[in-house]
Amino acid sequence: MAQECREVGAQRMNGLARRLFLALPILTSALVIAWLLSPRFMDGLICVLVTVIGSARSLLRRDSWTSADDLTTLRLGFIVIVTALFLADDGPGFTWTAVVLGATALAMDGLDGKIARSTGSTRAGALYDEAVDALFILILSMGLVPLWGPWCLIPGLMYYAFHLMSAFRPTWRRQLPKSLSRRVIAAAQGILLLAAGTPIAVAIPAFGVLCVAAAVVSVLYSFGRDILWLERRRAAS
């Protein structure tokens, strides 16, 4: 028992050191780059808000910190920079620089999943990854509103609407069964929304609208199916 306690204590100290000397410098560097890209006060405030929403809960947690969390933090740093690029650009859609950095952040999402499976992860780490994913989808959705309209917010708001409703509907807090289609749809959201804001989509509006429509339909299907499963489980119990 004493040995286990020492190991847990060592893991927590190691996690704290990694947060102080790796995670915080990554996020601070991202904020500095964001400020250089878009030095307006309100833009800087938005980037700080994105950083806090994405990381505050995880940086303050007591659970151990893993390599997957390091990569999730790096991904959040990229998202902060992408946000600054969105705010700095007054033109329609996303610049190619923002698209490339956004695509890098999406690719890193798959990489940190592999690291988590190979080196181990925690429930808190999974929630951190999930929160950063949802935040990026919301940012992409908001970035598309000036281009294609308010309906672009649907994919970005679904995650938050579901969790808000679960506060009043306890059955929605049940653990959902693993689903490959859910994972594919979740991964496709970022790709579709990013594609909908590219210069290609601006030049070919039908392509942009089709990408947003695919994201909206797929996310409504995914959440709708899960809600139906949860309600059926409630009725059965």
SSE diagram, text form:
Elements lengths: L1 H36 L3 H19 L7 H22 L7 H24 L3 H26 L4 H14 L13 H16 L3 H5 L1 H32 L1
The number of distinct helices, counting runs of at least 4 residues, comes to 9
Number of strand segments: 0
Question: What fraction, in percent, of the residue positions are helical?
Answer: over 70%
Tell me the span between the first and last alpha carbons.
39 Å
Uncertain runs are 2-10
Task: List the helices and strands in order.
Answer: HHHHHHHHH
Q: Overall pLDDT, averaged?
A: 89
User: What's the main sheet like?
Assistant: none
Broad shape: globular
- Helix and strand content put the structural class at mainly alpha
Task: Write structural notes for this entry.
- This protein is mainly α.
- Residues 2-10 have low confidence and may be disordered.
- Helices cover 82% and strands 0% of the residues.
- The longest helix has 36 residues, at 2-37.
- The relative contact order is 0.09.
Which structural traits does this protein have?
single chain; 237 residues; mainly alpha; 9 helices; globular
In a few lines, what is going on in this structure?
The protein is mainly alpha-helical and 237 residues long.
